[in-house]
Amino acid sequence: MEMLIYVFGLSLVFNGDQSLLAMVVYAVGFGLGMFLGTRIENKLAIGYVYITINTQNKNQELIDSIRANGFALTTYIGEGRDSDRYKYEILAKRNREKELFLLVESIEPRAFIISYEPKSFKGGF
Predict the structure, then answer these.
(1) How is 57-111 classified by DSSP, letter by letter?
(2) Domain 48-116 classified CATH 3.30.70.120?
């Protein structure tokens, strides 16, 4: 659907006299549409994020706080170059991602955090 609108809009702009004003209006409309669409999508925050947190030391306070705030958490111990590393995996609703980041940063400021958007998943819950 998006591509159909894009092609239709371009054909209107470039069909006929090809005025500079029509091109500018199209470009502004396209940019504004992209901006507003992105803002709306971020506000709705539909879907899930998969977050991994890596720390140098096991932080039981962090684990307990994440779970107390309603997030499901799985922990792993990994072998780093110089010592063991601790990895925490969380699947959370996208609208709570910022909340989780702030929670982690307040307890473990040096944590390495990565957030992914899973394409699909099955089972688990």
Answers:
(1) S--HHHHHHHHHTT--EEEEEEE-SSSEEEEEEEEEEGGGHHHHHHHHHHH-TT-
(2) yes
| Domain boundaries along the sequence of the chain | 2-44, 48-116
Say how far apart CA 72 and CA 82 lie, in whole Å.
29
pLDDT in tens, 40-61: 877 777 888 999 999 999 999 9
Q: How confident is the model at residue 33 (pLDDT cuts 50, 70, 90)?
A: confident
Q: In what order do the strands lie in the sheet with 48-55?
A: 73-79, 84-93, 48-55, 112-116
